[in-house]
Write a sequence for this structure.
């Protein structure tokens, strides 16, 4: 893009979404500066389950979940926890969340998310190629995911949701005990009801993937600054750059806010109220698990995922609402580790490590991919919730389209920051 050749773009936040935006903008001819106080790869996706969850289009507010919340809250080992520090900020968010649980709304949100997820592999292909070439190793696993259930009734309760996935063209194949045992010998005899989500893939080293992608941006001529951004500088109704915490100023023709949970504060002074909530999830990483899994396994009743990664087996999940500055409560990770041990007693947990991440969640489970109305050269890319890894590259492509000033290739109204 010759007309972008000398345009400066500052991307605030170098997690998976920011790194993907930086990559797309730099490739599109912008001169990109990626700014983040953390080291490349050391962001929320480091402790994600690594799934390209392309059919995870049913919002978190699905009616089945709403019904289960009271019993989960009463069970200290359940998949949901609410810390007292979060109650005040959670209440308005939760009311919006419940409003998204109506079947018609669930159906609508699923269609809107599918409009993004159906592009995931096409959008990621060049980033994966660049990142694997850089590291010289495979970062992607093409193995799909298996979801297992304790009973036929538990599987049946999900049918309405996997029918939604099917209607949007995603693969959902029911599995019996034999099929589960054949696909996953470690689970033989343990489950009789399952689903194979054949079109999911996984990143096997999320930290390494983001590092490699960031290095690709630098190799294409971009820059990275390790510092927090304090403010977006404005003049005459446009952004002219950003000021870093230390006072240094960076000029920019385009500013992209992709700061995950840190994004909201950039818009408070601009009158945009974005109900962004960090929802904590935990991981226990077993470096030498002693048991091999061919797929990632979602254990629906346990509320966790077993994800084979390059660095070991990750056992992750849980939904915890806590204040933004609350210390992690690693008992949540112990609970899922105990459940995993009960499921697969052969697991070797020696030398295990804890991980924690805060998913940047909006109450309707959809991200914001938009242009700021008051500052039209400020673009917004945040709030990806449980799908940030999945949607990183697609978001990056759409942000690059917005930065070109042309109409984007799809309607972005469902992802407007002004929908709340
Ligand atoms: C347990 C768990 C499992 C998950 N599993 C999956 C999965 O299987 N598949 C999937 O798609 N997603 C998954 N997710 C969700 C996914 O990890 C997130 O959606 C994604 O990482 C969010 O990326 P992000 O770039 O928007 O935000 P972040 O990764 O949080 O990055 C934001 C960055 O902005 C920086 N920042 C903040 N404020 C500033 C500032 N003022 N100036 C400069 N920089 C700033 C931060 O330092 C940070 O590096 C999971 C999450 C968890 C916790």
């Amino acid at each position: 893009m010759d007309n972008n050749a000398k345009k400066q773009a500052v991307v605030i936040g170098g997690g998976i979404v920011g790194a993907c935006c930086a990559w797309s903008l730099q490739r599109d001819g912008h001169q990109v500066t990626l700014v983040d106080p953390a080291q490349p790869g050391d962001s929320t996706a480091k402790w994600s389950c690594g799934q390209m969850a392309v059919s995870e289009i049913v919002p978190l507010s699905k009616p089945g979940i709403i019904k289960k919340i009271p019993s989960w809250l009463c069970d200290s080992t359940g998949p949901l926890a609410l810390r007292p520090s979060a109650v005040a900020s959670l209440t308005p968010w939760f009311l919006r969340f419940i409003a998204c649980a109506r079947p018609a709304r669930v159906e609508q949100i699923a269609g809107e998310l599918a409009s993004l997820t159906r592009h995931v592999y096409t959008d990621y292909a060049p980033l994966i190629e660049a990142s694997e070439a850089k590291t010289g190793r495979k970062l992607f696993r093409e193995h799909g995911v298996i979801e297992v259930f304790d009973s036929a009734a538990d599987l049946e309760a999900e049918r309405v949701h996997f029918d939604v996935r099917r209607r949007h063209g995603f693969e959902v194949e029911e599995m019996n005990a034999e099929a589960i045992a054949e696909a996953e010998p470690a689970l033989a005899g343990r489950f009789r009801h399952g689903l194979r989500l054949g079109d999911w893939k996984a990143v096997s080293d999320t930290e390494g993937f983001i590092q490699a992608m960031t290095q690709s941006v630098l190799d294409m001529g971009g820059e990275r600054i390790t510092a927090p951004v304090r403010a977006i500088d404005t003049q005459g109704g446009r952004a002219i750059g950003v000021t870093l915490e230390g006072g240094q100023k960076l000029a920019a023709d385009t500013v992209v806010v992709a700061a995950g949970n840190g994004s909201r504060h950039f818009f408070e002074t601009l009158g945009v109220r974005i109900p962004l909530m960090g929802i904590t999830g935990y991981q226990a990483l077993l470096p030498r698990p002693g048991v091999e899994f061919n797929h990632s396994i979602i254990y629906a009743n346990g509320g966790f995922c077993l994800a084979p990664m390059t660095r070991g087996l990750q056992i992750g999940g849980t939904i915890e609402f806590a204040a933004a500055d609350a210390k992690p409560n690693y008992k949540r990770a112990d609970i899922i580790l105990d459940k995993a041990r009960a499921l697969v007693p052969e697991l070797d947990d020696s030398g295990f490590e804890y991980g924690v991440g805060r998913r940047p969640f909006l109450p309707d489970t959809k991200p914001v991919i938009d242009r700021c109305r008051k500052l039209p050269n400020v673009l917004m890319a945040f709030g990806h919730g449980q799908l940030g890894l999945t949607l990183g590259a697609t978001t990056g492509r759409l942000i690059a389209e917005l930065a070109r000033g042309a109409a984007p290739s799809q309607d972005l109204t469902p992802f407007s920051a002004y929908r709340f």
Remarks:
- The chain is about 35% helix and 25% strand.
